[in-house]
Design a protein that fits this description.
The chain has about 425 residues and is α+β, with helices and mostly antiparallel strands. Helices cover about 45% and strands about 10% of the residues. The protein has 18 helices and 14 strands. The longest helix has 19 residues. Bound molecules: protoporphyrin IX containing FE (HEM). Protoporphyrin IX containing FE binds next to α13, α14 and α18.
């Protein structure tokens, strides 16, 4: 049998996603054990679409309460930094209720005009006739400004939010952060988000903004959090810290990745860009815009996995899992599962149906911001389709050194205008 690829080898991920290895494992050992370096206990890989959905649904057996990454935090660590994403029902249901009304399809449709105007401004400033970095000029700009509008974040702080968010989500990349998880001693930071001093900095920034909002509440999301009650009590300072950090991290980088990796896909598959741009309907609307958006999300899979922890001995995909085991749901593999998707290794902007896993599926943690993210990707694609006939790589993209985020640090491209 061929040597197994080590999915904890982050330098490998910096070179690309091991899709062939995932396909091989899905065919042979779809739920399989992997050791980890040092004293870490190892984890199960869950690679098939159906098994991922099954585990996502069964939150009693597959808990989020030990965190969603490879880390092994203590109870005290978790108590300090637990967010909605690592809270199980019934507590999760109560937290989710606070924000769910603000993120329905109808609620986010209110931002359509705002996102359109913002995107045009970003493209006016960012698209040039010379080669440029698409991440820096476009992909990074849109999501953070949308988030700022929704949460009521001060415009002057946005570069800092971007920088801190990057240092957290890319906490394994020494080119992004100077405190690298897995390389440096991060014990002193274990009670902060992403086990990073920058998590604490983000909390502090949030606290200063929240203090201002207490004095002058408005219609934004932070004000809604300040008004919220769970079981008759206002959210604690710890809850507010953690809501703030998860929103800034989850709502920004992920959407940036979908946009940037999406354009990389169109650089590599120019015929799909031609298909998307062809024949705008009467209203100037692209027929394939919705299916292309979903395919960009499937193909780019910004968050490659979510971890769960087994609460009891159980069986999944033929594997016998023991209580306490880490169980890693590889959405990036499920999104290419041939049992769910016809021709899964083909980037097809007309793909339908397309029940991808990029926002999770079947469980209560399904991405809260999914409709907002879809809106942003759709608007950016439509605006680019009006302006750009062809994307070409000007230099190889630079990927983030991480097995968690599918981020690009740089995407140097040149464009041929429409
Ligand atoms: C393309 C963009 C995005 C992707 C790929 C993405 C992906 C995900 C994934 C995979 C999960 C966990 C699902 C699960 O465990 O079942 C999640 C949860 C979450 N996402 Fe997103 N996300 C995106 C955009 C956003 C945006 C724009 C926001 C907010 C403004 C957001 C806020 C959240 C929150 C708060 C959670 C936790 C939900 C819960 O635990 O109930 N996300 N997201």
């Amino acid at each position: 049998m061929a040597e197994r690829v080590d999915l904890t080898d982050l330098d490998m991920w910096a070179r690309g996603v091991p899709y062939e290895e995932f396909a091989r494992l899905r065919g042979r050992t779809p739920v399989t054990w992997s050791d980890e370096a040092g004293s870490s206990p190892g984890f199960w890989l869950v690679l098939r679409y159906d098994d991922i959905v099954t585990a996502s649904r069964d939150v009693r057996t597959f808990s989020s309460s030990r965190g969603i990454s490879f880390e092994d935090p203590t109870d005290e660590d978790m108590a300090a930094r637990r967010t909605i994403i690592d809270t199980d029902p019934p507590g999760h249901t109560k937290l989710r209720k606070i924000l769910s009304g603000s993120f329905t399809q109808r609620a986010v449709a209110v931002y359509q005009d705002f996102v359109e105007v913002l995107t045009e401004q970003v493209l006016d400033a960012g698209l040039t006739s010379e080669p440029f970095d698409f991440v820096d000029a476009v992909a990074k700009e849109v999501p953070i400004r949308v988030l700022a509008r929704i949460m009521g974040l001060p415009a002057g702080d946005l570069p800092l939010f971007i920088d801190l968010g990057d240092r957290l989500i890319a906490n394994t990349d020494p080119d992004v952060t100077d405190v690298v998880w897995g390389r440096d001693d991060t014990d002193a930071y274990r009670r902060f988000p992403f086990r990073s001093p920058y998590g604490k900095q983000l909390w502090d920034l949030g606290r200063a903004i929240i203090a201002g909002r207490l004095a002058a509440p408005g219609g934004d999301l932070l004000s809604a959090l300040l008004r919220a009650e769970v079981d008759g009590e206002r959210l604690s300072e710890t809850d507010l810290d953690n809501f703030f950090s998860i929103m800034v991290v989850a709502g920004n980088e992920t959407t940036r990745i979908a946009i940037a990796q999406g354009i990389l896909a169109f650089c590599e598959h120019p015929e799909q860009w031609d298909r998307l741009r062809a024949d705008p309907g009467d209203q100037g609307r692209l027929d394939l815009l919705d299916t292309a958006t979903e395919e960009v999300l499937r193909w780019t899979c910004p968050t490659r996995f979510m971890r769960r922890t087994a609460t009891t001995d159980t069986e999944l995909g033929g594997a016998r899992i023991r209580a306490g085991d880490k169980v890693v749901l590889w959405y990036v593999s499920g999104n290419r599962d041939e049992a769910e998707f016809g021709d899964p290794e083909t980037f097809d902007v007309g793909r339908s149906p397309n029940r991808h896993l990029s926002f999770g599926r079947g469980g209560p943690h399904l991405c809260l911001g999914a409709h907002l993210a879809r809106l942003e990707v759709r608007v950016v694609l439509a605006a680019l389709a009006r302006r750009v006939a062809r994307f070409e790589l000007a230099a190889p993209p630079r990927r983030i050194r991480s097995n968690f985020t599918n981020g690009l640090r740089q995407l140097p491209i040149r464009i041929r205008p429409a």
